[in-house]
Each structure stands twice: as structure tokens, then as C-alpha cells.
Amino acid sequence: MENWNTKIQKGLEKIGLCRNKTYLCGVKINIKSKRLYIMYLTSEKKEELFSQYGKSNKDTGSVESQVALFSYRIAHLTEHLKKNHKDFATQRSLIKLVGKRRALLDYMKKRDIDRYRAIVKALNLRK
Question: What are the residue ranges of CATH 1.10.287.10 in the chain?
Fold first, then answer.
């Protein structure tokens, strides 16, 4: 009799994937406690965001990079909350993320209004 881990392992081997921390279509897959967790934010996606909005793909500290990362995470959490409207822990973390992004945008608006306008336009934050 096979346990759940062996069944998942055989299924992953059938489609050509190994056991832990594998990639399928750019999405990281982790097997933990009888569930298949799919990571929505991989390091490759972070590097792509940082290279697109920051100065380089290693530029993790600039305000533009942080705002872009927060916006990506906010979009993901918003989609999650549309499906799971009673998930109040996620709702709280979404509100905290929006506040962090707002604080960074306020800082940028005070320091350099041109950079602020550029990032708002690039990320489509205003309608």
C-alpha cells in the first residue's frame, strides 16, 4: 500500500520532475504535510521585477523596487481574497502591505516628484 508521499512522488516523476523544490512552468513546487504548495513569488520573478523597476536585478533596496514588489504581492492577495472572502488573516496582511506601499510612495513624493510620477504611471496605480 502506497502512502500519499509516494503517490505524489510517482506523479511528479511521471511528468519529469524530482521530489523537492522543483519548478513547473516557472512556479516553485514544495511538498509539505500532505499538501502541494505552489509558490507564487519565485526568486526569478523577484529578479525580473527588480530589473524592470529598479536599477538592476540585484537592486532590492530602491523605493521603486519595493513598491513594485508590494504591488505584485497586493495583486496576488487581492485575487486570493476574491476566492476566500472569510480569510481575515490575509485581509489584515493585505491592509498592512497597502499601508507600507503608501508610506513608500509618500516618501518618494516628498523626495522626488518625477520618480513618483514615473513609478505610479508604470505600475498603473491611479485610475
Answer: 43-123
The string of pLDDT tens digits covering residues 89-125 is 999 999 999 999 999 999 999 999 999 999 999 999 9
For the four alpha carbons of 13, 16, 22 and 27, in that order, the dihedral sign comes to: negative
- The full DSSP string for 48-94 is HHHHHHSSSTT--SSHHHHHHHHHHHHHHHHHHHHH-TT-HHHHHHH
**pLDDT value for 36:** 57
Which of 42, 37, 62 shows the shortest CA–CA distance to 52? Answer: 62
Give residue for cell 481574497: 81
Q: What's the residue count for the chain?
A: 127
- The CATH T-level fold of domain 43-123 is Helix Hairpins (1.10.287)
